[in-house]
Amino acid sequence: MKRLKSIMLAACAAFIAIALIPTQQVSADSAALSIIPKKNYTIEAGKSAKDTLLIRNLDTEKDLNLSLRVVDFTYSDDSGTPKLFLAEDAPQTTWSAKPFLTLPQTVTIAPKASKSIEMGVSVPVNQGAGSFYSAIVYSSSAPEGGNVGLNASGVTLAFVDVPGEVKEDLKLEQFGAYNPAGDKKTGSYVKFATENPKNLAYTLKNSGNVTEAPAGTITIKPLFGKERIISDINPNKSLALIGQARTYTTCFKLQSSEVDFQGGSAKTTACSDSDLWPGFYKLDIGLYYGQNGNRTQDLQGSSWFIYFPVWAIIVLILALIVIGFFGYRAYSSVRNKFGKSKKSSHRK
Is domain 33-162 in CATH 2.30.30.30, yes or no? Predict the structure, then answer.
């Protein structure tokens, strides 16, 4: 029994040590430029539209001198991070919106002031249906090929959808519980989790000629207890670009909080612990997608994962030790009694 007590004390100490490991916090600085990050247009072939780009200089002392140019972009990985083609001789992509967009090449904005820049979007009369997109790059110095983080002050992504009969083809490649990237370049799907899971994810491959913003629900089914439904698994209407295999992440549970932002307050949301009990969980996903004027299509999928935290593993091990200990004692007791009765019968 003394040995059993020492094992239990050591296990509890290990569990407490794991629970007290501190988490790291990450902060980010804001730039001196405020722009609209994304513009969406639906324009028929042969027609055009006028729009404005609002640019704000957050600097309180200096003028903001910007050069503007349109470049193409694609995806850099399975997230939503765009990869800009900044080189002057970069070939034009098949989905480029550069021929559609007109805007001034330079702009100067006074300190703490805003300026609206006129932009034209014109689709040629013989343009076929599909999605087209490019990026408007705002540079505080002459733009050169290279790392966008060194030269560009900001980027607005411009998406132009030309209605008509298009090719829509999304495939569900993977789905399940998910560990975010952390220090790694990409995250990973998990089947067995020892920490309370916060994220679910699904990876879609877009083989069509239009961008897609899927919508749908995920159902979480435990072996025992009530199922849980996540009703909006793409709340930001994030796009899967042409040719991209994009991984969308969603939260088991959302937590809202107020944060200080530029002298005021803003509401932010983040994933929190799922509050799941240890056990086996089945996952079902139902997705639908489709451009306006085209048939809505759906995707179905299923997966599973096991959540078994460290404390549950410790409890299970201790339970097995206790069961084994008392089981062995019971077995020894029965064997001794059976042996004694057998010896007494032989003597008779």
Answer: no
